[in-house]
Amino acid sequence: MVNGDAVKALVENHRAFLRFLERRVGSRESAEDILQDAFGRALERLDTVREEESIVAWFYRVLRNAVTDHYRRNATAARALESFAHELDGTVPPDDVHAEICACVGRLARTLKPEYAEALQRIDVDGLPVKAYAASAGISASNAGVRVFRAREALRKQVVASCGTCAEHGCLDCSCAASARHRPGAGSG
Predict the structure, then answer these.
(1) Where are the domains positioned within the chain?
(2) Among 18, 31, 45, 127, which residue carries the largest CB count within 10 Å?
(3) Residue 34: CB partners within 8 Å, gap ≥ 6?
């Protein structure tokens, strides 16, 4: 098959390929990412397709392998997040410091997207395991792991924006100007 004809056949089947992937990964966004990567890899390997083989059948094999790789990567990321969560389980700051930090961080967490705020509340504050949170939220454990990871990153950015260098240097005294403005009963200056 001439490379131009092969590329044309792949482009003509784009929607079918996307539906195929979306059914397998459950997300349009992930399916589009996988398809884009697979197209890039396939264009480099078009010369490996045997003359008698259908380019479309060959590309479906490429997509099946890409889906397998996608799930392997997600499983690895989920295991890493779960391991990190287990590391955090044993670290508990003293009660007075914990209360002060929780109050400040809690205010900042409420400025996040609602699903991020909920994930942090349920997992990090209430101590609900990621798998239990996933079940209650109606999402997969790997999606819950990704959600809480993104929520923590968003919260970290909020803390740095609010507390500036205090956040970078581990200051546990939540008396910075930004914090004081948000405390109930605090003056506005």
Answers:
(1) 3-82, 93-182
(2) 31
(3) 21, 25, 63, 66, 67, 70
Give pLDDT, residue 139.
Answer: 92
H helices present in the chain, as ranges: 3-12, 14-25, 28-44, 55-89, 95-109, 114-119, 130-137, 141-163, 165-169, 177-182
Reported as half-sphere exposure (CB side, CA atoms, 13 A), residue 77 has a value of 16
Distance CA 87, CA 20 (A): 38
DSSP 170: T
Architecture of domain 93-182: Orthogonal Bundle (1.10)
The answer to whether 54 and 75 have CB atoms below 8 angstroms apart is: no
| Per-residue model confidence as pLDDT tens digits over 95-124 | 555 566 566 767 777 888 889 888 888 888
Q: What is the pLDDT of residues 61-91, one digit of tens each?
A: 889 999 888 888 888 877 777 777 776 666 5
CA distance 12 to 8: 6
Which secondary-structure segment (H or E) carries 127? Answer: none
Angle between helices 141-163 and 130-137 in degrees, nearest 10: 100
Report DSSP state, residue 94.
-
pTM: 0.41
